[in-house]
Amino acid sequence: MLKIFFYLLVLLTFPITFISCQAAEKKEEEAGDKKKYKDVEVKDGKSLLWKIEGNGLEKPSYLFGTMHLIEEEYWVFPESLEERVKDCDRLVMEVEDISNAAGALDLMKAKEGETLKDMFTPEQYDSLMNIGAEAMGMGRESFEKVFGGMKPFGIISAMSKASFKGATKSYEMTLISLANLNKIEKGGLETIEQQLGFFDQIPADKMKTIILETMKTVGEDNGEMVEMMKIYQEQDLEKLGKFMIEQSPEMMENEDVLLTGRNKAWIPKIEEYAKSGQNFIAVGAAHLVGDEGVINLLREKGYTLTPIRTDK
């Protein structure tokens, strides 16, 4: 289902975060060095938080699966997770720092002859601008000025906001705020240029179809999105993997570009970071899933990965 393909992008990449949310409210650092968390193993394996140990590492690191944008009702980020971030030597995300929205928007500009106006009929383009403007809470003229000249993914990012019925939060912006407030070093697994470039590898006709199908569903019941957020809140990665396969064969067609190829490229970088201190590594939850997910790929390299309770 193309609608599900659109939703799953929220699990895979976070250019969406540039335009769909604002930085989370900062919290004051509490005094004292005593740890306020315990690493308690989850026996059934259902967790978004995994401890990385062994294979010669002097300190453990933590791997956490995010949704780049999520309704507050399904938000999973208790105080124990916040304390782990504060306790780390480095925060590692897919991209080192996504707070420069202006720079990201510049990278999303389409080449001459490849704009949305070139891709769609005048009627389709007009509908896109109206839907996007409403989703972003902007005037039509202002929205078109910003998004009209973007690559197709730009309008997908804008329309993603309409898929959420409640107030939304961003893990990435929350983590960046914590790192900045506590003067924690930041690292990345890929550049924003690389991340946005993955969508250039999806054929234009496929992107056009995704956008047109998404237009038809804006404002409709978002049951599939709610189901996915519930699975995320349950921290059931195995169930999440099955959901992706069953609900979106379109996603699987682009799995190597959007998912597994990136996972494999990240492993040497994760190893390098892990060898130089304690890290809190946050990536889209879909990247943790399956035989070619980050968890299993690290295990194949000889590391011990343990699912940890997020409320301890």
Strand order of the largest sheet: 6-4-7-2-1-8
Q: Which term fits the overall shape?
A: globular
The percentage of residues in β strands lies in: 5-15%
Mean pLDDT: 84
Q: Please give the number of β-strands.
A: 8
The low-confidence parts are 19-32
Structural domain tally = 1
Number of helical stretches of at least 4 residues: 16
Cα gyration radius (Å): 19 Å
User: Which structural class best describes the helix and strand composition?
Assistant: alpha/beta
Q: What profile does the largest beta sheet have?
A: 6 strands, mixed
What string, H for helix and E for strand, traces the elements in order? HHEEEHEHHHHHEHEHHHHHHEHE
Distance between the termini: 38 Å
Helix proportion of residues, in percent? Answer: 40-55%
How would you describe what is shown here?
The chain has 312 residues and is of the alpha/beta class. The chain has one domain. Helices cover 51% and strands 11% of the residues. The strands form 2 sheets. A 6-stranded mixed beta sheet has the order 6-4-7-2-1-8, sandwiched between helices. Strands 3-5 form a two-stranded antiparallel sheet.
